[in-house]
Design goal:
single chain; about 100 residues; alpha+beta; Alpha-Beta Plaits; 4-stranded antiparallel β-sheet
Length: about 100
């Protein structure tokens, strides 16, 4: 069993308030959960209105498959047009 953990620091271009940010983050997380086999949550920077930290987790039997899903997930986030990935960290755990 292989567990992949992805941490993204994201710059949001559109929000002008915390309320707008929460709405965008909620939509972004729903999009990721619906389109990819991952668990997802906002894990940091909740009090900043133009940045967020998102965490994703995935379990699979193949490390390569996890990397492929995370690469497609990154592309999907960038394609939204209102989010830019500033930093990316992946941790792979083998059990």
């Amino acid at each position: 069993m292989v567990v992949g953990v992805l941490h993204l620091e994201i710059l949001l271009h559109a929000p002008q308030s915390i309320k707008e940010k929460r709405s965008l983050v909620k939509k972004l997380l729903a999009r990721c959960r619906n389109n990819f086999p991952v668990s997802a949550a906002e894990v940091g920077a909740q009090d900043l209105w133009q940045r967020t930290h998102l965490g994703f987790a995935m379990v699979h039997h193949d490390e390569k498959a996890i990397h492929q899903v995370y690469d497609r997930l990154d592309e999907s986030i960038e394609e939204t047009g209102f989010a830019e990935i500033v930093d990316r960290f992946i941790e792979i755990l083998h059990y």
